[in-house]
Amino acid sequence: MTVQQAAGPDPYFPANGDARYRVHRYELALDYRPGPNRLSGTARINAIAGRAPLPEFQLNLGDFKIGRIRVDGRQPHYTHRGGRLRVRPAKPLRAGAAFTVEVHWSGNPKPVASPWGGLGWEELTDGALVASQPIGAPSWYPCNDRPADKASYQISITTPSAYAVVAGGRLLTRTTKASTTTWVYEQSAPTSSYLVGLSIGKYQTVLLGDPGLGGVPQHGHIPSDLLPEFSRDFARQPAMMELFQDLFGPYPFDEYAVVVTEEELDVPVEAQGLSLFGANHVDGARGSERLVAHELAHQWFGNSVSIADWRHIWLNEGFAKYAEWLWSERSGGRTAHQHAAAAHRLLSTLPQDLRLADPGRKSMFDDRLYERGGVTVHAVRCALGDIAFFRMLRGWASLHRNGTVTTATFTSHASRFTSEPLDQLFEAWVYGTRLPPMPSAETGIAV
Q: In the chain, where are the structural domains located?
């Protein structure tokens, strides 16, 4: 496992996160009432100071009322403005010291404003969901909101008993008292704050496939009226899981859940061990099957192997895009090379001013990043050949499981699987902006 913390603030979101310490574990106890959209919570955060003494530190948290804060049981000085909770302990924390923060908060959760609309906690007509990428996590809990700071989570949520709660991880207990039910989930694998997924709604739960001995438990949580369409649209997900484990290595988490909300979502949302789809992604005709593959692939690429900062988002999206093409290739559809060629033709008609290795905050979710990322992965496949390429992919997922990576980490890793230098390939596809020629399916030479 590689844990490669970014050295300073995220260049795209310098107000989010604090590189001077890292979190080991979050324990969240939440109470949510859907009607008034009222959330109250207590967080116990176990953290470790960095290499320098820590006179103060920052958490990110939205517009909530703070009830109490304690650092190692003592009351600190704090300020809470503009989504930043600045905490000054009674005495500075020693370099390398373990410490515990307790935060009590309450209020009406609302999305974090961003160039891409509201992010994080979203109140639905009858329930709620969390879609935090990239900076929405503080909309509902205090966190060190940077992708490189991965921690384990235990989440306890109490809601009216009519509602089901789905979170990424393993359901430990479900306890009903009077009119409320408390759900407790454990996510033991290190998780980035934006990947902590949650959905509250009225769902029917179904088993997807038969996990058998040593298989991955897969469940769907959907409104009962969408069950017939869902049963067809997600019927091949167990086969995807089997294929991706063959191509990428063992599934990195304990189980996998998908949720379909009654409302429409612009795009599905991946979280650790969980993906969220809108009702518009369920049509009974497998019209969104490529997205089913895309979100599942993120469990390896983005969730288990995470980026050190947002400049490297192509490592998430390019590999998930390529997984769509691999599923098509292996399930009787167009080959990955045909998909790559179509993407290349599309990219050739669009502005060529995007650099995969550092697209800039405005372009980090540009469609061109997804398409060019996929074609770049295909170019690496063409250069390495299938045997070395898939060995490289499995090694990437295994070596960096539960860790964080950068573009340079990947280029160095891929270069170890060939005797031919890949410098020109990466310079053109990853660090350059002009679209290189489409690689050949046979030799990797531009044609």
A: 1-202, 306-431
Phi/psi-derived region of residue 379, left when phi > 0, alpha when psi is between -120 and 50, beta in every other case:
alpha
Each residue's pLDDT tens digit, 198-241: 999 999 999 998 777 678 999 999 999 999 999 999 999 999 99
Separation CA 19–CA 338 (nearest Å): 43
Give the right CATH number for 1-202 from 3.40.50.2300, 2.60.40.1730, 3.40.600.10, 3.40.50.300: 2.60.40.1730
Superfamily of domain 306-431: Neutral Protease Domain 2 (1.10.390.10)
Tokens 């961003």 appear where?
114
Note the pTM of the prediction, 2 decimals.
0.95
